[in-house]
Amino acid sequence: MDKFVRNFIVMSIVYLCASSFMGVFMLIGPKFHSFKFAHSHFMVLGWVSMMIYGVGYHILPRFSGRPLKSVKIGEVQFWLANIGLIGMAVFYSPCQYVSSWQWFLGLAPVFGFIEFISIALFFYNMLATLLAKVPGQP
C-alpha cells in the first residue's frame, strides 16, 4: 500500500475519533453546539471522504488493471484535503458564536476552495486512471 493511501486511511480514523468526541460533547449541552460545523465536516469530509480516497486509490487502479495516473497528485491531494478541512473548521466555527471574530469568516471560503481543489484532483486522478487506454486492449 502506498504511503499516501495509508495516510488517507489513518487520517480518516483520526477524524472519526475527533468528530465522535465532538458529538458526545454536543449532547452535554448547548454551550458545546459550537462544534456542530466542525463535527459534521469532520464526519463527512474527514472520516467518510478520506476513507473513500484511500480505498479508492488503493483498489480502483487494481480493479481496472491500470496503474494510478499520478502518485504525486494523490500526495498533494492528501495535504490539500487536510489543510482545507481543518482550515474550514478553524475559521468558520468560532465566528458563528463569537461576534468579535467575524473577520475569521472571510478566511473560511479560502479553505473551502482548497478543499474543492483537493476533490478536483481526486476526480482527475481517478478518471485519468480508469479511462486510460491499456496497451493491447480495444
Structural class: mainly alpha
Low-confidence stretches: none
Mean pLDDT: 91
| Shape summary | elongated
| Helix fraction bin | over 70%
Report the count of strand segments. 0
N-to-C span: 29 Å
Q: Could you tell me the strand content as a percent range? A: under 5%
Q: Over the alpha carbons, how many angstroms does the gyration radius reach?
A: 18 Å
The description of the largest β-sheet is:
none
Pattern of helices and strands: HHHH
SS summary, helix count: 4
Structure explained in plain terms:
With 138 residues, this protein is an all-alpha fold. The chain has one domain (3-130). 72% of the residues lie in helices and 0% in strands. The chain has 4 helices and no strands. It has helices spanning 3-28, 36-64, 71-92, 108-130. The protein is elongated, with a radius of gyration of 18 Å. The two termini are 29 Å apart. The mean pLDDT is 91.
